[in-house]
Amino acid sequence: MKGILLAAAVTLWVTAAEAQKQDSVKNYQLEQVIVNASRSQSKLGDIPRKIDVLTKNDLQASPADNVGDLLKNTVAVDIIEYPGIKASIGMRGFAPSTDNKYNVLLINGIPAGTENFGTLSTGYLQQVEIMKGPYSSLYGTNAMGGVINLVTPKSTGKLVGSVRGGFGSFNTSQLSGHIGGSLTKKLSFDLNLSGLGQNSDYKTGKNNLLHRSAIEKEILDPSTFDKKYSNTSYKKYNEGLRLGYQFSDKVEANYYQRLFAGRDVMTNGTIYGVYGNSKKDITRWSHGLNVAVNGNRHKLSVSPYFSREVNNYYNIAGTNDFVETENVYKEFGVMATDKWLLGKHNLVYGIDWNNKQYESKRWADVGERTAPYQPNYRNGALGVFAEGNLNFLQDKLQVSAGLRYDNINFHLFATPEMETDALSENHQVVNPHLAAQYKITSNWRVFTGYGTGFHSPDAFQKAGSYSYSSSYGKYNYKGNPNLKPEKSRSFDGGFAYANRDNGLSGSLTYFDTHHLDMIDYDRSNPDYTTFKNTSKEHMNGLEAGFAYDFGASSDYAWSLRVFANATYLLHAKSEDNDVKSNLKYVRKANANFGIEYRDFKHWQTRLSGRYIGHRYEDNWLYTYDYTTYEVIPYTTADGTAVRPSLINDSVLKHPQFLVFDWTGSYAFAENYTIGVTVSNLLDEIYTEKDGYPMPGRSVGGTFTWRF
């Protein structure tokens, strides 16, 4: 690994701010964008569903260096983010979860091989597609909240590239670069390399832009304001390679290979250090191949893939620095799709074979193996799907109808140091969808749709039994063969307007979702813990977007654009045994807004804001006296009690926040660009997860050379 990283340090590195050519920016029309994640590869304006697309300009104008930060700052989604490169998102009222169980995450239409949005760099991306709503009819399990597809470049022709370096607050340094183009008439490639290190602990914010009640101030805790957050430094490296070969004008193959390496990623638990200091390393290798055959009436695509991600967690509390836990996540399978052109209509159908395998090891001390917290297992799925896309009334009316069948199989493996029964279970799931849109004029369209989604339980929840021992005693778990997958049914509808000539665009979407058969622990049996389908949720709300470009009056000789988008939950309730409560870990509202100027020659600048609404969240910052079971507060290293007045509140209503970012760049001498970024411009104190305040104001500068 050191050799790989050393080679990366002296090679070209990927740039997140590569400038677009002037003509392509000025003539850009969003409605003409091809959405790869739709599986039919249709134009954005021809898909009767709610889809957001982030273009290259959106990517280069964002201060985010990972996909988690990018999405929370652009498309009004929920996020739970921790220091130490760990992030998950949720859409339309589905709570973010660390195993990303309510979204499907793809890179170039192929499973990304990770459940952690924080490990995905934005530097090598060309486009990001966010499809909100249920898509299990196309992608099977997990596609309840939506699908996110990251698209990387496919460079052909003359070799071009760029190199970028930068420095910033918290002793942050970065180096990145890209080179791509054609090596022969048939062989092309893209190579991206990047490295970023935050070499010092970050400091939290100190200001509040919005009013705080007394209890909100207590939740945030003034003692955490303007404070250095210990053990938050890290280093991360990315490498991406594409090799493309054009066999003929109808047959093309592209091989994708990616590496992510997080090193010395410090994790301190909460800012109070309650859970102790630790360190982790993350390594992920991903491989994928796409073979596309474009015939006169058929467009066939076949994509085998394999990825392996390893998370090593170190025990650094004692004199011996050793790996305490190793978690391995493997994902492999094949996706095959055919688009059959039938005049104005088309039929998309295919078959997916997907496997997700989890393996764990744990050590009590150097060389002393002990039982992991979960057995090794694999979730497999074989799915077949079909979707018809129909056009009527001179292409004004578009109808999409689809159906997918999945056979889900579970395998629980015998696991060293653990008492485990190796067993298998399976179940079948069918998911339909129906959507339609009508183009009232060339600028106005209305759309509506209905669909279902599902999330399969993990193998250990469904099959077999397992036991492990710790210093607290022995724990026995048993799978429930009657456990059903979590399910959802969703309706949405709305309208959209887009007119490049007058610079105005906007949309409004209403959604209503019922989330059923949620999986939870069942501790009713004194001899073991099992799992059951319990609570249900009901969420509905509005998604709105607006943009206006004053540059339309000059035929886009320049651009001055104001924009905003938001998600607002009208209703968000959970019900368990007829007891209703507020939905937890979901913001009441999320919004992004801002103003951007470009002259298409030298200057580009963007001021953007993010509104983060209230959220209900479990209060974890207290413990028990296990002799008397008295509730007591945690204490910091100096003996100070952590939020003592809140220890009797099991659920807290977290405050709202307002965070601003600014980016600016100046291009000169055709090939050089200087950039400045200020994240959290007004130094807001805010959290994405209780007890884990995010960085305060940080300033960075970059220099880019394009060749």
Low-confidence stretches: 1-27
Assign a percent range to the helix content: under 10%
Shape: globular
Measured by DSSP, the beta-strand proportion falls in over 45%
As a whole number of angstroms, the C-alpha radius of gyration is: 25 Å
Tags for this entry?
mainly beta, 5-stranded mixed sheet, disordered N terminus, 22-stranded antiparallel barrel, globular, about 700 residues, 42 strands
Describe, in plain words, how this protein is organized in 3D.
- With 707 residues, the protein is mainly β.
- 6% of the residues lie in helices and 55% in strands.
- It has a 22-stranded antiparallel β-barrel. A five-stranded mixed sheet has the order 3-8-9-6-7. Strands 22-25-26 form a three-stranded antiparallel sheet.
- A hairpin with a 4-residue loop joins strand 23 and strand 24 (444-455).
Summed up:
The protein has seven helices and 42 strands. It has about 700 residues and is mostly beta strands.
What order do the helices and strands come in, and which of them pair?
Blueprint: H1 2-9, H2 22-26, E1 34-35, E2 42-43, E3 51-54, H3 56-60, H4 67-72, E4 78-82, E5 86-90, E6 103-107, E7 110-111, E8 127-132, H5 136-139, E9 146-151, E10 160-168, E11 172-182, E12 187-198, H6 214-220, E13 234-246, E14 251-267, E15 278-294, E16 298-315, E17 322-342, E18 345-365, E19 368-370, E20 377-392, E21 397-412, E22 419-420, E23 424-439, E24 444-455, H7 459-462, E25 465-470, E26 473-478, E27 486-499, E28 504-516, E29 519-522, E30 530-533, E31 536-549, E32 559-576, E33 579-582, E34 589-598, E35 603-612, E36 615-618, E37 622-625, E38 630-633, E39 651-654, E40 657-668, E41 672-679, E42 698-706
Parallel strand pairs: 6-9
Antiparallel strand pairs: 1-2, 3-8, 4-5, 6-7, 8-9, 10-11, 10-42, 11-12, 12-13, 13-14, 14-15, 15-16, 16-17, 17-18, 18-19, 18-20, 20-21, 21-23, 22-25, 23-24, 24-27, 25-26, 27-28, 28-31, 29-30, 31-32, 32-33, 32-34, 34-35, 35-40, 36-39, 37-38, 40-41, 41-42
